[in-house]
Amino acid sequence: MNYINKFFILTGLTVCFFVACDDEYGPRKESAPVIESAAIQPSTFTFGDSVTLSAKVFDPATMLTTLKYEMVSGGKVLASGTIPLVGDITEVSYPLIVSLQSGQSDNASITVNLIAENVLKGATTSEITGLTGNRPSYSRLYLVTDEGTAVTLLPQSGSKDKFEGTNLTLDGSFRFRLAEKLNADNTIDYSGDVYGNVNGRMGMIDERGESAFAYTSGGAYTKTFVYDNVSFDVSTTGGTVGIDDWALSAFSNEDIFNESFRTLKRSLETGKTYTLVGTLAEAANFYNPDFFERVSANQVKFLGESGEYTLYYNPVRKNVFVGVDEPAYPQYLLACGYGLGYPTNVTSAEIGAVYPGHNRVHTEWGFGNVMNYVLMRRIADNVYQGTFFTPGDHDHYAGFKPFENTGWGNEKKAGEFTFTGEPIITGDNDWTIPNGDEDPLTESANYRFTIDLSKKTVHVEKVTWR
Question: Of 135, 213, 322, 359, which alpha carbon lies 20 to 30 A from 50's?
Fold first, then answer.
C-alpha cells in the first residue's frame, strides 16, 4: 500500500512540475499562418518558360516553416515544390519552370495551390488563379543525333505541331535530341527549347538532360522522321539501300594495323555521286579529299579514275579512304615512310585512347597494309596529288619518299625536285620534316603535295576544311 501511495505522490509532483513550466514560460499558442499576398509573374506564359512565384506570409504567434506550391492545369501537375520560410514573416520571390507535357492544351487555364505551414503544423491554404499557359510555337525544329548529324524538321501541311524530315539517311537506330536553335557549327543552342528523354518519354531538357532513342524496323536505314509535339510521339519509316548507296550493313569487318576497319569492294566511276547511308553520312566522317568531294551532307562525288576499289572506313579515326589491288605507276604514286596519315578530325589523344600508341600519323617503311603508305592520285599526265596530315603531333618529325609500286619501285628522291610553297621538306634522299634542336618546329597540319614528274617540281600547300 505504501508503494502505491508513493507512486501517486511522485506522479502528482511530475504534473505539478510541468504545470509550473507552462506557468513560467507561458503556454504554447496555436495559430495559423496568413498568406497576405501571392502572385505568378507573368500571368500569361509559354509552357517550358520560367516564371516567378512571389508571396508574403506571416504568423502572428508561431514561427513559419514552409510554403508548398502545386501548379495544375486540366488535371496535370506542371510544377510543384516546397519553399522554406524563416521567422514569423517572410516575403519570397521564387523562380520555377512550368513543364510542357504531352497532351497539353493551348491557351490553358492554370491554378496554383498554396499551403503555408508553421512549426506546430498549423496550416493555411490559398490559390492563385487567372493564369494562362500557351503551347510553344516553332517554325522548325532540328533533329540532332549524338553523332553530330543535324536534320531540319519542318511542320507538316495543316499540322503546326507535327514536324517532319524526309529523304533522310539516318541509321536504323540512333540517339537524338530535338532543338529549337542551332549554333553555327550545328551544335545545339540551349538558349532555345530542347527536347530529349524525360523518364522514358520526350520532354523538355537542359544541357544535363539525356538523349532520346529511336529505332526503325523494316529497312536498312531511317528515311523519314516525324515528331508530334502534342503527344510527344516519334514515328519513323525505313528505306532500302540502292546499288549506288553506301551503308555499313554491306561492309565487312577487317583488322588492319591492329585497328578495326569496315571494308567494301566496289566499282567506282569518275564524277559519279554516291549516297551515304546512316553512320557513313555523319558529319564527323572525313572523306579523303584526293578521291572524294562531299557535295552534300549525305553525298560524295568520286574524283578518281573509274575502276575497282576497296573502301576503308575507320570508326575510331572517322575517315574514309580507298585502296586498290597492286597500286602502281602511272595511275598512282605511293608515299611510304614515317610520319604521314590520311586526314581526320579525330585527335591523336582520341585515337590513342582506343589504340594505345597510335596517332593521327600511321605510315611506316613498308607495304604490308594500306596503313603503311598513302595513295596519291594522278590528276594530270605525270602529275600526282596527295593530302596528308604531317608531321606527327606527338614528335613533329616525318621522313618518307614516293614510290611507283609496292616493290620499292623507282623511288623519288628529294634532291631530284624543286620544292615550292610551304618550306617544310629538307634532304637530298628522304623527304624529311626535321625536328632537331636547330630546326624550326613544323606545324602538324594537313598538307597537299602536288608532284610533277615531268617538270621535277613539288608544290606543298597547307589546306583546311570547315
Answer: 213
Of residues 399, 221, 388, the one with CA closest to residue 319: 388
Three-state helix/strand/coil letters over 394-418: CCCCEEEEEECECCCECCCCHHHCE
Q: Do 326 and 387 belong to one domain? A: yes
The pLDDT value given to residue 466 = 61
Q: How far is the first Cα of the chain from the last one, in angstroms, to the nearest whole number?
A: 102
Q: Among 127, 150, 118, 154, which Cα is nearest to 138's?
A: 154
Same domain, 80 and 195: no
Domain assignment present for 10: no
The per-residue pLDDT for 84 is: 96
352 phi and psi, to 5 degrees? Answer: -65, -25
pLDDT mean for each 10 residues of the chain (466 residues)? 39 37 44 95 96 96 95 95 94 95 94 96 95 96 93 93 94 95 95 95 95 91 95 94 90 97 97 94 94 95 98 98 97 98 97 97 97 98 98 96 94 97 97 93 97 98 88
Cβ neighbours of residue 320 closer than 8 Å, sequence gap 6 or more = 280, 285, 286, 287, 288, 292, 311, 312, 313, 314
Same domain, 74 and 111: yes
pLDDT of residue 14: 38
Residue type, 290: D
Domain that holds residue 186: 141-239
Q: DSSP letter string over 348-384? A: HHHHHHHSTT--S----SS-SSTTSEEEEEEEETTEE
Number of domain units in the chain: 3
32 neighbors 120 (Cβ within 8 angstroms): no
Same domain, 123 and 165: no
Which of 63, 68, 107, 111 is closest to 89 using CA atoms? 63
184 and 124, same structural domain?
Answer: no
Predicted structure pTM score: 0.73
